[in-house]
Amino acid sequence: MNGTLQGSAQDSLILDVSDLSVAYGGKTALRNVTLNVVKNEIFGIIGPSGSGKTSFLKAINRMDAMTPGMSTTGNIRFQGYDTAKWRNLYSLRRRIGVVFPLPTGLPLSIYENVAFTPKIAGIHRKLELDAIVEKSLRRAALWDEVKDRLSSLGSLLSGGQQQRLTIARALSQDPDLLMLDEFSIAVDPVTTMRIEEVLRELKNEITIILVTNLVQQAERLADRTSFFLNGEMVEVGRTVDIFNGKASDSRTTDYVEGRFG
Amino acid sequence: MFSKTSQNVRNDRIEGRWRTLFLVMTALLILPVVIILTLLIIRGGPAITWEFISGFPIKGMTQGGIFPALMGTIFLVSLGLVFSVPLGIAAAIYLSEYASDNKLTRIINLAIINLAGVPSIVHALFGLGAFVLFMEFGTSILAASLTLAIMALPVVIVATKESLEAVPYAFREACWSLGATKWQTIRKIVLPNAVSGILTGVILEVSRTAGETAPIMFTGAAFFLPFLPESVYDQTMALSLHLFVVATQVPNVPESLPYGVALLLIMLVLLMNALSIGFRVRFRSKKKW
Fold first, then answer.
1. Which of A18, A189, A240, B185 has a CA positioned 20 to 30 A from the CA of residue A112?
2. Is B118 on the interface with A (CB under 8 A)?
3. Cα separations in angstroms, B153 against A39, B111, B136, B148, B223
4. pLDDT tens track of chain B, all 289 residues?
5. Residue contact A98–B177, C-beta within 8 A
6. From the CA of A169, how many Å to the nearest CA of chain B?
7. Rounded to an integer, what distance in angstroms lies between the CA atom of residue A203 and that of residue A238?
8. Is A5 helix (H, G, I), strand (E, B) or coil?
9. Which of B233, B163, B157 is nearest to B191 (CA)?
10. Is residue A78 a contact partner of residue A127, using CB atoms and an 8 Å limit?
11. Chain A positions in Cβ-Cβ contact with residue B171 (cut-off 8 Å)
């Protein structure tokens, strides 16, 4: 199993990226990335800062349409459809949940944070919203801690709770793909472990792309891991290979063993 | 080891001198405000009675009240707001949330800043040409309010833009990634958190336009009217122009009268400022991140 899959595996692809490049105002951030992500796997992306990991995520959910100066070339197929030709980008983004490095609880109550996505998608019946909020918070392992204060401000929660709140928010629309961008950067180790547990559970239902600054986190969670360096994807491989000296590129081995980066 | 070296002593002396200088400058700054207010209260205070506020000027404006001028100022300022606030907020939303950062946007932003620096007498002449003559509103409340609105616009736009930009960009990105449109993001997240800042800017601008004389002099404010205006096409009296008139144009005015008018005008402005400070305090205490 490597960067490309053949035969029957084609059906289980959720994301098929070929020759993707991302530039900001002419300055290239990511060059010619080709990889794919299989349903119900955790796909890890590791690499030092500035390697283009975040740009990769932004290209997937078409944030280039909202970011001045950002442009992409190449081809991204999400569930078989070319995202460049996707007419309703808002519906595309609702099928892809995103969790940012720093917890961004919106300046709304806990309840409204989670109900935000269903509401903007047109769901207004209270019973339905209540059910979505509870389900999402349970999936993010936050329900028990906040069920008695759903109306207090989301941004007043602790960093770790806020990060789980943003995961709950990302799950509120039942996405097919969840992308986490260095979610543990502002979270204590205990909470990080809890969130990792949550991700392992979620894997049964959805696909996860995990961008991480902690190589051990990729080792613990990811089925396959990809190494990004200086705007290029060095390689994709099974996590067990990447972390056991069987990487095909020596730079990958150097990085995961902490010799640089 | 801890005793002062000669260098320390010199530094302390210089430090003390600068401190005194800054203190004196600050005192000099406050002095005019104190003098103006004391003078107005001493000389104008006795003139302010209920009859003064609610009555009409009589005997060639040497006696009686200033009711039509007070109401006129309120009419002019409120109608000006009706024009400038929606327009200014909409323009600011476009400029800070939608417009891409290109040459045209930069030129527009520069133009807005320059518009704020145009002298009020120039605005007055523009209003005369554009609203009174070209659009044929005549010298009227409508023309004067529009002139005030044009004057207020750049300040409203800049205040709104600053308040919008104070809302962290991360909130917008988070909303967009959830599939929200730009407008949904603005309406649900950005505007609710910027509204107090916008109000502060608007109220400060109100207090400024309330005192303006030149822009309304040619476009809609009257020297003397024995009645209240009946429509926006009528002329009106205004406090600022009335002050100018009773202070310089009318003979045999009792000394307390212009001081009374000035005190009332300044009270109106200070009231507005207090309101805006109140909003700002509320804004800070309700900050959600």
1. A189
2. no
3. 54, 12, 22, 9, 27
4. 678 888 888 999 999 999 999 999 999 999 999 999 999 999 988 888 888 888 887 777 677 788 888 888 988 998 999 999 999 999 999 999 998 888 999 999 999 989 888 998 999 999 998 898 998 888 889 999 999 999 999 999 999 999 999 999 999 999 999 989 999 999 999 998 898 888 888 888 888 888 888 888 888 887 787 778 888 888 888 888 888 988 888 888 788 888 989 999 998 888 888 887 887 787 777 666 6
5. yes
6. 8
7. 17
8. coil
9. B163
10. no
11. 104, 106-107
Every domain of chain B and the residues it spans: 6-47, 51-285
Partners of B174 on chain A (C-beta within 8 Å) are 98, 100, 104, 106, 166, 169
Whose CA is closest to B229, among B114, B116, B79? B79
CB B102 within 8 A of CB B190: no
With a CB-CB cutoff of 8 Å, which residues 94-113 of chain B face chain A? 100-101
Burial-class residue B92 by CB neighbours within 10 Å (0-12, 13-18, 19+): buried
Please report, in angstroms and rounded to a whole number, the separation of the first and last CA atoms in chain B. Answer: 47
Cα B38 from Cα A75, distance rounded (Å) = 74
B170 vs A contacts (CB less than 8 Å): 100, 102, 104
Matching residue, tokens 């613990």: A220
Q: How far apart are CA A225 and CA A209, in angstroms?
A: 10
A88: which 2 tokens? 């309703």
Q: Is the ipTM of this complex over 0.90?
A: no
Running DSSP on this structure, what letter comes out for residue B5?
Answer: P
Judge whether A221 and A207 are in contact, CB under 8 Å.
no
- A208, A202 Cβ separation under 8 angstroms: yes
In which region does residue B64 sit, left (phi positive, over 0), alpha (psi from -120 to 50) or beta (all else)? left
Residue of B nearest to A172 (CA): B178
The span from the CA of B151 to the CA of B124, in Å, is: 9
**Sign of the torsion angle spanned by Cα atoms B221, B33, B120, B146:** negative
In angstroms, the first-to-last Cα distance of chain A is 26
Tokens of residue A235, six digits = 């390689």
Residues 6+ apart with CB under 8 A from A82: A75, A76
pTM metric for this prediction: 0.81
Q: Search chain B and give the residue with CA nearest A168.
A: B178
B180 touches chain A (CB under 8 A): yes
**Residue A223: CB partners within 8 Å, gap ≥ 6?**
A38, A41, A42, A43, A238, A239
Q: How far apart are CA B1 and CA B3, in angstroms?
A: 6
CATH architecture of B51-285: Orthogonal Bundle (1.10)
- Give the H or E element holding residue A96: strand A96-99
What Cα–Cα distance (Å) separates residue B230 from each residue in A217, B52, B71, B235? 75, 22, 12, 9
Both tokens assigned to A139: 């999936």
